[in-house]
Amino acid sequence: MKIFLLITAVLLSLFFCGCNETKVQEQPNILWLTCEDISPTLSFYGDSTAQTPTLDKLARSGMVFDYAYTTVGVCAPSRSSIITGMYPVSIGTHNMRTGRDYAGWGTRDYSSPSNATDINGENVPLYSAVIPARVKCFTQYLREAGYFCTNNQKTDYQFAAPFTAWDENGPKAHWRHREPGQPFFSVFNYEVTHESRMWMNKHLQQTVSPNEVPLPPYFPDNPIVRQDVARNYSNIELLDKQIADRLDELKADGLLENTIVFFFSDHGGPLPRGKREHYDSGLRVPFIVHMPGKERGNPTSEMISFVDLAPTVLSLAGIRPPGYMQGKAFLGKYKAQNPREYIFGSGDRFDEFSDMCRTVRDKRFLYVKNFHPELPSYKDVSYRKQMDMMNELLKLNESGQLNSLQAYYFRQEKQEEEFYDCETDPYQLHNLVDDPKYADEIERMRKELIQWQEQVGDKGFIPEKQLFLQMWPEGIQPVTMAPEIKVKEGTVTITCATPGASIGYIISDEQLQPTLDSPWSIYTGSMPVPYGKFVYARSNRIGYADSETVTINF
């Protein structure tokens, strides 16, 4: 059975690749080493506090992007843009967090109540975001082109990862499980720098001295603050060791010289005024691309957004990115001709607190539009208050012991617009929106933001409860219709009546009881199947519940 499946997969992939003007054997291996919650506080960005020899070496031989930004300063909306190549505000994945999506395939738990409320105070239950029918996880296109795609192990896309997105998805997923010679796209996610490790790793030895850490001007200088800042840098040193182990595996497999390696964080750092914020401290990330055989080592000033990652990986694989994707490929065969001039960001609900802000950034300026200036700038998210430093800042603010720069984070009302000169004010602490000197620049970026919102169809204007009911009519999750299998003269055709559905199939010599963890292939068109085989098919549309599995034997 395995040999038959392999032959079928190779034939289909060769056909698909021919349509995309590439060949399987010419497609490079691509490895993503992604981490959580760090800003560019690394030596190749000018901060040598943490000792990171592995990342330093990767940076010396790779492309270091100075202007790399996520779309939202928190994980789930950010990751939804990474996997789709779409802005979260455009596909309805902009509110953090919509539902539960655990590491295992198909784990969809939406039965628990939610403490989230939308901007109108309406309770929003847990749900899986239903995104536009045409939008797929970009890894599905790689799989259709013959790639072996693995994710180890976080998804967190605001919708349950469809079973068609990955060949393997979980703690054991690895490129080593592919067929001989098969190109791979593999993701390894590192949680050691996650916000939660600020308190979960308190028992570990600090490898960075609290006395030696730099402090931005929005932090007071006291022992509790220094202790947590040092913990963050110490966690980054742990990250470097873990990444070294993975690269050693790649080298041991003889793949280091023919694999494109990406390193980046999902958003800014875990400290207060970092994660969840729409300033550089929340949106700007470290980003390296190591291209085999190309000695780089110099930073690049090209601006890139996380919506650009999906089309870029497809471009590197020789696959033309789908026209619906809102990102621009910045590498590969289909690299965009015009480099990006602006980065757009958003912030809406973060856990139990709702707001709406939008940002546009060029290489010098940051413009912020606050749609609810009456709401506090600081969001009192309970999850973050497990951090000693957060509670210390709250105490100092309450007692009036913070200076004006430190208290800026806690202002109870916001101006409708904010404007910062990031060259003279890299921490974005001095709002220049009322300075006539910048009137022309402010108007330029204001227009760019309005145009972008119109272009992407910003769903932030829809209260989340209303948006949820549009996705789940009457509060009930829609279900993907079962596929229909037809056989004619030894050729199998599978269809699904649900618009935008993807179909997975299994062909077997014997009767099975397949699960979501079974080796589903992606159906791309009619295919010959010898008589006597069992054919299993299952359908999924992102945000919908999966269909039942349909079986025929002929």
Overall tally of structural domains: 2
Largest sheet descriptor? 8 strands, mixed
What structural class do you assign from the helix and strand content?
alpha+beta
**What are the low-pLDDT stretches, counting only 5+ consecutive residues below 50?**
1-25, 102-107
Q: Average pLDDT value?
A: 93
The helix content, as a percent range, equals 10-25%
How far is it from the N-terminal to the C-terminal residue, by CA?
A: 16 Å
Look up the CATH topology of the largest domain. Answer: Alkaline Phosphatase, subunit A
Number of strands: 21
Output the strand order for the largest sheet.
6-5-7-1-8-9-2-10
- What share of residues are in beta strands? 15-25%
**CATH architectural label of the largest domain:** 3-Layer(aba) Sandwich
**Which value, in Å, is the CA radius of gyration?**
24 Å
The top-level CATH class of the largest domain is: Alpha Beta
CATH superfamily of the largest domain: Alkaline Phosphatase, subunit A
Enumerate how many helices there are, as a single number.
13
Spatial shape:
globular
